[in-house]
Amino acid sequence: MGNGLRFLNGGSAAVFASFVFFLAPQQASADALHVFCTSPTPTCTDNGSITPTSTNPPTFGFTKSPDTGSATFYLEVLIPDNVIGADTQSFSITGTNTGNGSVLSSLFGSSAWSSGQLDAYLGISAQPTNPIGAYLPLTQAYQPSATGYFVYEFNFGAVNFGSNNPTFVTSFIVPIGSIVTAFSKTVVCNGNNCSDSWTATANSSSLLITNGTPPPSLPEPATLSLLGAGLIGMRFLKRKRAA
User: Fold this and answer.
1) Is cis: bond before 166, omega within 30 of 0?
2) Contacts of 167 (CB under 8 A, 6+ apart)
3) Is 9 contained in some domain?
4) C-alpha atoms less than 13 angstroms from C-alpha of 100 in its C-beta half-sphere
5) Is residue 6 part of a domain?
6) Which residues pair with 168 in a beta bridge?
7) Nearest-angstrom CA–CA distance, 76 and 87
8) Measured in whole angstroms, how far is the alpha carbon of residue 223 from the centre of its chain?
9) In terms of residue numbers, what domain contains 44?
10) Is the pTM of this model over 0.70?
11) CA distance 79 to 74
């Protein structure tokens, strides 16, 4: 339906919509990818949020639940667009329990991802959806001038989720503020009608590469008020003593 749907009236529209829904590949809404860390990277538990790690290069893996089985696995490394050479990186990632053992980086696009959903930027439709707002604020705590990411993609081929989940290690020091996330693809057929079904990470369950220090925090408004009052008081006393 690349040309879009034409307007239908009344019952025809309802019947047509039901027909389309029946033919479309359905994916369980709870099905998602989840990150985990492996030694020497400190143990991290996916709680549906982005996990920070200062181990660099990191070692990590992904599970898929509630469904397991075989799928094509794509790893994505998001490098902040303010990093020097962010769009000219060349590095490899080694996988274990993957169809392809070592994959060289492939820059997805010459323009950075700076708005919207990651799957839309990649030209696919995946669930759950991951908006840039789930990643960028965390990155900006370490890279304040970042406005988006250059996305590097790694096709690791067929993996079997379950007892032998895929694990990975990068070949280079990942720039601070980078995000590591993933997608998996299965082919769903209804008769001769086949299409790709994409699964993404749950609630942006990815890795954030940090330098080991907590992100800077801004003073609360009340703190700023007290600080301002204190400075004014000190200035008043200084002038009084001078008089």
Assistant:
1) no
2) 38, 59, 60, 61, 95, 96, 97
3) no
4) 15
5) no
6) 60, 95
7) 14
8) 34
9) 23-236
10) yes
11) 16
